[in-house]
């Protein structure tokens, strides 16, 4: 007969992030931790750090506002999404920041913000034409 499992007191950070469905594989979780995109209790973390209920996590994803989470439960196995969502709770400030970012993306990008440099001025065009006129070529040197 199977022996009853003892209640978990701690789980590796990379395994918990994978089980809570933040990352598709543990290797991706380890990579994000290595890039300092994950903090536990406002401290830099390592993949083997033991996570306990009540800990706070800060997850940074490129192009997104950081997610602040509170660990509610532990799991070493990856289960269905509804079960994984019960392992954590996102803070209200994090939810509002993500909602504001979602609304800004929905509004679209302001075209003027995407322009790094506008149309060339008359002065720029003259400099370009001078460059083309006086640039040396291989054929000119042999003559």
Please outline the helices and strands.
Blueprint: E1 11-12, H1 13-19, H2 26-34, E2 38-40, E3 43-44, E4 50-51, E5 56-59, E6 67-71, H3 81-84, E7 88-90, H4 92-107, H5 111-114, H6 122-134, H7 138-142
Antiparallel strand pairs: 1-4, 2-3, 2-5, 5-6, 6-7
Helix pairs in contact: 1-2
Structure description:
The protein starts with 10 loop residues before the first strand and ends with a helix. A hairpin with a 7-residue loop joins strand 5 and strand 6. The strands form two sheets. Strands 3-2-5-6-7 form a five-stranded antiparallel beta sheet. Strands 1-4 form a two-stranded antiparallel ribbon. Helix 1 (13-19) packs across helix 2 (26-34). By secondary structure, the chain is of the alpha+beta class. Helices cover 41% and strands 15% of the residues.
Described by strand count, sense and barrel closure, the largest sheet is: 5 strands, antiparallel
Strand order of the largest sheet: 3-2-5-6-7
User: How do the helices and strands follow one another from N- to C-terminus?
Assistant: EHHEEEEEHEHHHH
Radius of gyration: 26 Å
Helix fraction? 40-55%
* Category from helices, strands and their pairing: alpha+beta
Number of helices: 7
Distance between the termini: 95 Å
How would the global form be characterised? elongated
Q: Tell me the strand percentage band.
A: 5-15%
Average pLDDT taken over every residue: 85
Low-confidence stretches: 1-5
Number of distinct beta strands: 7
